[in-house]
Write a structure and sequence with these properties.
By secondary structure, this protein is an all-alpha fold. Helix content is 81%, strand content 0%. Helix 1 runs parallel beside helix 4 and helix 7 runs parallel beside helix 10.
Length: 287
Amino acid sequence: MSRTVHQLGTRTSADLLMYLVLTLLTLGAWQFSRLEYFKAGDDIGYWIGVAGGVMMLMLLTYPLRKYFSFTRNWGRVKWWFWVHVTLGVAGPLLILVHSTFRVGSLNAAVALYSMIIVALSGVVGRFFYTRIHRGLHGEITTLRALQAHAGFDQSEAASRLQFAPTVEARLLAFEQRELHGKPNSLTYLRQVAVLPAQLWLTYWACAADLNEPLRAIARHREWTPQDHAKRVRQSRKLVRRYLSSVVRVAQFTAYERVFAMWHLAHVPFVYVLLVSAIAHVVAVHAY
C-alpha cells in the first residue's frame, strides 16, 4: 500500500516536471532556429523536416497496435505508449526547427498549426490517460486499503483517529459526499476542476482539528517535543492519503468521460494534420 500511495503522491510532480521539460525543449528549439544555420527549403532544413514527418507518421503505429488483433502480441502496450509519447514530442520539435517557427504558404500554415493542435491535444490526453489507466478497480482497492489502515472499515474496534472525532466526521462526510452523491455533468465538472482545491481545504481544516487533541494527549502521556511532532506528522499523513484516495476514486469516472470526449475531438485533428501534411509535401516537391 505504501508504494501505491507514494506513486499517487508523486504523480502531480511528475506531470509538472514533464510540462517544464516540454516548455524548455520548445524554447530551446526556438533559440536554435534563431541562429539561422539553415532555412526550411535548403538541404539541412529539408531533411530535418523529413525526420520530423517520419516520426509523426510513426505515431499512427500506436492505434494500429491497439485495434488490430494480429499486432497485439508485438510487445507490451505500456512500451508502445511511451514510444508514442516520445515520437509525439520529438516529431513536432523537429518540424518546428524545420519551419524555423515561420510559415511561408497557406498549406504550410495549415500543416504547422494542425500539428501544434494535435501535439497540445496529445499532452492533454496523456494527463487524462495517466489518471484512468490503473482502472477503477485499482483506485477502489487503494481506498479500501487506506480504510482498513485508518480503521474506517469497521474491521478494527476503533479508528486511528478516534482521539479526534471532528476529523473522523470530516473525512467520512467528504467520502460520503464525493463517492455516494448523485452523479451528473455538473458533478463531473466540479470533481475535475474544483475537487482538488476542496481536498486541500478539508485537509487544512482536519490538520487544525488535530492540534488540540494531540496536545492534550501529549500532556497526559508526557511526550517529548520530538514524539509530539512525529505523531502530528503521522496523523496528517493519514488524513492527506485518505482524502487523496477518495478524490482519485471520485475523479475516475469524471476523467473517463472527459477522456472519451477528448478522443472524439483529437482524432479529427489527426486526419486534418495528415491531409495537410501530404498537401504540404506534394506542394514542396511540385513547385
